[in-house]
Design brief:
mainly alpha; single chain; about 100 residues; about 0% strand; 4 helices
Length: about 100
């Protein structure tokens, strides 16, 4: 009985992790669309949500995707400092995962 409960908890945790990864990709995708439509404030909100969910997920790929998406939007907004910080965060992620 205890082992069954542990398996269920493990499955629930994996499901939540997968949901976060999908959410990162969804928010990054929405950000990309709004970026193309020049709706930069909306694009920025979605991109920053992708970054935050990427951080929560603990998966480097999803966080990297969110950081790059957010950097593109910040660059388009003329916020070079924020874009640079996001790109440096992306670079650190790549260095850690080599």
């Amino acid at each position: 009985m205890a082992q069954s409960g542990m398996i269920r908890i493990s499955i629930d945790l994996k499901r939540k992790e997968a949901e976060r990864i999908v959410a990162v990709l969804a928010f990054a995708g929405l950000s990309g669309l709004h970026h193309e439509w020049n709706e930069l404030d909306v694009a920025a909100r979605h991109a920053l949500e992708a970054v935050e969910l990427g951080r929560q997920s603990g998966f480097a790929d999803s966080l990297l995707h969110g950081c790059i998406t957010a950097a593109r939007v910040r660059q388009s907004q003329g916020d070079w400092r924020a874009a640079d910080e996001l790109l440096h965060e992306a670079e650190r992620i790549v260095q850690r995962t080599k």
